[in-house]
Write a structure and sequence with these properties.
- With 538 residues, this protein is of the alpha+beta class.
- It is built from 21 helices and 7 strands.
- α2 runs parallel beside α4, α7 packs across α8 and α10 packs across α18.
Length: 538
């Protein structure tokens, strides 16, 4: 007897849990059936709003079908179905479950017509339905949509969503969306003033856009509060914009550092004006392209490791080409800087044409690994992962190179040759091989710079041309042959460029920077950090 009672109680509980669902489904079907009696767009819109006001995710399937023109009424019994084209006829799907119910000829059906205004209502309605989604990202997207397209009809669903929300960050977004909807409603002035205060605390450009609309369409205290909030937000955004420019300048500086650091070594040790340095960067970028092509065709699972694989290969390719240039051309031209400039310029043209012959003149596709894709926000700062990793990589290269120069025997020989070539030779240092290996090192670093630049710039035969002048400016400004000067010069020029661009434009900004460097060199001919030594100071 006890077992029978337990079974009976369980059945009652199960039936009790199913009844609300069945009742809710019946109510939804009753609302959907009203589409059959809607004779114009306004009546159809009223049914859409009634469906979305239920807040039930089950009504989501028929709404996109309506927006796409795939919601039909069967003439025989006025039932509403989602239609799917089946050649000569149309398959009729249940609007809630999506299961196929029947098929019908097109002449037996009436399509429910929609216009752009109705599609907008459907889109906004679908946004309210996602307020209860299990995925927080979906709820956040819904809150953002409702904030940007406020509607007094959203207040009720948002109130329910706020009461049910357990995630504090998502709840805050819901409250901001509710405040936006309050501002376009007929609620009391006190409620609107509270909503303005909440939106002002958000402090972003979407808030300014919304409050600007409120300011234009309001009077009295609401208008004044909106104006004050806009002024406060704009002053805060100006500070964030300055921070954004500093980040852009640091990002540009990291690129200039990678492109110039190899040039700083060769120019400082050898006194060679290497106009083919940009082509070493280009070779590194094309090495990355070749590595990714091989991985795509043969080892697709290794794509996220493509840059790690490309780095040593790009260094070797560029270093070997640099060694060949030094041994084949430059070693015959030491002490004649103008001739080295002309010779290396000719080498750069040869390398560009060789790449055009092998790979073609058009840009090549180099993809971003997953860990370098996307971005994140810090306050109002937008930071992309690829730029951040390039900054980290540039500083790592700088640190390794600084260690080699200061803490290894070979770095000691290189510094000795830089300070006094004749004295270094008399001490037994083979200066020709120091020159050759230094040029190879500088070229190899340019090659790994090309790996990084392939992630933010077009990989083409002209890739290096855009960085060679900037690289020379960085080296001359920072101090020829001084790594710390190159670091400070790269970041200084990057930040100055980004602050000048909004006012002078990209091209004029570079001209202004060049003029400033020329004026600076008049006062400090050896740059920010001048090398010291008898030969250098002579």
């Amino acid at each position: 007897m006890i077992l029978i009672r337990a079974i009976g109680l369980t059945l009652l509980l199960v039936m009790a849990s199913l009844l609300p669902s069945s009742a809710a489904e019946a109510d939804l079907r009753a609302i959907i059936a009203k589409f059959a009696a809607a004779t114009n767009f306004s009546a159809t819109e009223a049914v859409v709003r009634e469906l979305t006001a239920t807040g039930d995710p089950a009504v989501e399937p028929p709404l996109p079908a309506l927006a796409d023109g795939n919601l039909y009424i069967r003439k025989a019994d006025s039932q509403v179905f989602v239609g799917k084209d089946a050649g000569d006829g149309i398959d009729l799907l249940d609007p809630l479950s999506g299961e196929k119910s029947a098929s019908a000829a097109k002449t037996d059906l009436t399509k429910i017509k929609v216009n752009n205004g109705l599609r907008r209502v459907i889109r906004d309605g679908l946004g309210t339905l996602t307020l209860r989604a299990t995925d927080p990202a979906v709820r956040i997207a819904a809150a953002a949509t409702m904030f940007k397209t406020p509607d007094a009809a959203n207040i009720g669903p948002l109130d329910a969503a706020i009461a049910a929300e357990t995630d504090a960050s998502v709840k805050a977004l819901f409250e901001q969306a509710r405040a936006a909807s309050l501002l376009v409603s007929d609620r009391p002035e006190a409620d609107k003033l509270s909503a303005i205060a909440l939106i002002a605390a958000r402090g972003d450009r979407d808030a300014v856009s919304l409050l600007t609309s409120v300011e234009a369409n309001s009077q009295g205290a609401v208008k004044d509060a909106a104006s004050s909030a806009i002024a406060t937000i704009n002053s805060t955004l100006a500070l964030w914009d300055a921070g954004q420019n500093i980040w852009y300048g640091i990002s540009l500086g990291s690129v200039l550092l990678l492109a110039a650091i190899g040039l700083a070594i060769t120019f400082g040790v050898m006194g060679v004006i290497n106009m083919a340095h940009g082509e070493m960067v280009m070779l590194g970028a094309y090495t990355t392209f070749v590595v990714q092509q091989v991985i795509r065709t043969s080892f697709p699972g290794l794509f996220d490791w493509s840059l790690v694989i490309a780095l040593p290969l790009a260094f070797l390719v560029a270093a070997l080409v640099g060694l060949a240039i030094e041994r084949g051309v430059i070693r015959f031209l030491y002490g004649r800087p103008l001739e080295t400039l002309l010779a290396t310029w000719g080498v750069s043209l040869i390398l560009q044409q060789a790449v055009r012959t092998i790979f073609g003149p058009t840009n090549q596709e180099v993809g971003n690994p997953s860990w370098m894709s996307g971005s994140f926000d810090i306050g109002q700062l937008a930071i992309t992962w690829n730029r951040l990793w390039i900054l980290v990589f540039a500083l790592l290269v700088f640190g390794v190179l600084l260690y080699v120069m200061k803490r290894t025997p070979w770095g000691l020989r290189m510094r000795a040759v830089t300070a006094n070539r004749r004295m270094a030779a008399s001490m037994g240092i083979r200066t020709p091989w120091v020159d050759a290996l230094t040029f190879a090192l500088g070229s190899g670093i340019a090659g790994i710079a090309g790996v990084a630049l392939s992630q933010i710039d077009n990989v083409s035969p002209n890739l290096g041309r855009g960085y060679i002048i900037d690289s020379f400016m960085v080296v001359v400004f920072g101090g020829v042959g001084n790594l710390w000067g190159t670091l400070v010069g790269a970041f200084s020029l990057g930040i100055v460029n980004k602050f000048l661009e909004p006012y002078a434009g990209a091209v004029l900004g570079k001209i202004v920077v060049l003029v400033l460097i020329i004026l600076f060199i008049q006062k400090r001919p050896r740059g920010l950090f001048a090398l010291k030594g008898r030969a250098v100071e002579a």
